[in-house]
Amino acid sequence: MLAACSTSVDGxxxxxxxxxxxxxxxxxxxxNSSIMSRRLGYRITTDSLTWIGLNQDxxxxxxxKSFKYELTNDSLFVWYGKEDFVTxxxxxxAETYHDYFLKQNKISLTLPKAENVRTASKTYxxxxxxxxxxxxxxxIYIQENETAKNEISGAISRFIEQADIYTExxxxxxxxxxxxxxxxxxxxxxxxxxxxxxxxxxxxSDEQDAFSDNFGGLTIGISSNKIDIIEEKNER
Length: 236
What we know:
Layout lengths: L10 E5 L4 E6 L2 E5 L4 E8 L4 E4 L11 E8 L3 E5 L7 E6 L4 H8 L13 E3 L4 E10 L2 E6 L2 E2 L5 H11 L6 E7 L5 H13 L4 E5 L12 E7 L15
């Protein structure tokens, strides 16, 4: 990888419309978008931004590709294709898009810790469900939207209807370690209705790449039968 000529782009840049991100640090960049999710080298001059280490099959046999760009204090504009089509990134104070999302929505969400878990890449179309806290109250987000309990079924239904049937999608469940288990089990009932049989229960690991948007976790199968919660009573 080649070092960048300038460090002015160092940090995290978010493309809000499609949840893309660029994370520049040292001599490399994490480019995470709907068409790419990988670490690249980069070179930047006063008039072009060049990705280094591209897949030759994707880039007509070339490992490098340069783009016109403009940079301001908090915005990065990149022309990936035609002159009239520009992608706009905004600089944010966060390490990942996940962290940025939580900060923007004032959500506290501490993932349970686990090691030696599998990773689900963002290259799939993900149904993301987040359950955390705001002002000590439990909040639920499905994709980017805060969702009340009576709206959960409709939100999942809309995702299933709009999902690309030719794309493998995974359901990723981000749950604060202090959320009662009945919230998680209750979500299984909604997912079961739409024939979602597996989820990735996302965990925190010290081995996770802090700069990517890939998450590790435990793969859990959802039973075809409803799970009843039985409250245990201690009798003396």
